[in-house]
Amino acid sequence: MQELLSVMRRLRGPGGCPWDQEQTHESLRPYLLEEAAEAVDAVSAPDRRELAGELGDVLLQVAFHSVIAEQEGTFGYADVEGAIVSKLIRRHPHVFGEVQVEGSAEVVANWQAIKAAEQGDRPRRPADRVPAALGALAREARTQKLAGLTGERAALARLLDTAPDSEAGVAAVLSAVVAWARSLDVDPEVTLRAHTQATLAALPGDPRS
To answer: In what residue span(s) does the NTP pyrophosphohydrolase MazG-like domain sit (predicted)?
Structure first.
């Protein structure tokens, strides 16, 4: 990681790259989203080396933001790494402490309890718990979970017959599809991404390429 940080400092420093020097936390937001999405796609690739490459692109974004913050004097990479290491140790008392657990369900429950205590048990608005940058399907799934909403195939079928041919009708059907997927413990965002990727792979190539 130190080598990557050194490269980024060189790119951002005197005599470096004009494009890299112009970037800000805000300007890099679309790249962070894109690289994370490409890493998700690479998980399904048959060649694991593709995943390694995409994870490198995600790591570049971490280094980029860290160096920008370092130059601003707000934080540095050591703060990023230190914060996540401390969090992992703090939220795994069954590994780094004396807490006993009987399975992953208890691990998740402990994690949530520790997280709430860290936040001083302050109530958070639902909007604060559902990042706006999530994909639309993932955001809907997270929102439904917070709201305690459930769904089933029969409800989806009924809605398909009655939904108006409008934006509101399409939105209602999409929401019902997400609820149906959740009832099957299927991640709608990941599943649709995999389906789209398979469709793209099956399309004929451009003869001009």
So the answer is: 23-96
Contact 145, 187 (CB under 8 A): no
Q: Which two tokens stand for residue 53?
A: 């490459």
Question: What is the predicted pLDDT for the residue at 130?
Answer: 81
* Confidence at residue 123, expressed as pLDDT on a 0 to 100 scale: 61
Residues 109-126: pLDDT tens digits? 998 889 888 877 566 677
Is the Cβ–Cβ distance between 73 and 84 less than 8 Å? no
Domain boundaries, the chain: 2-99+112-118, 126-202
C-alpha–C-alpha distance, residues 12 and 149, integer Å:
47
pTM summary value: 0.71
Q: Does residue 41 carry a pLDDT above 60?
A: yes
Residue 85: closest CA among 96, 74, 75, 94: 96
CATH architecture of the region 2-99+112-118: Orthogonal Bundle (1.10)
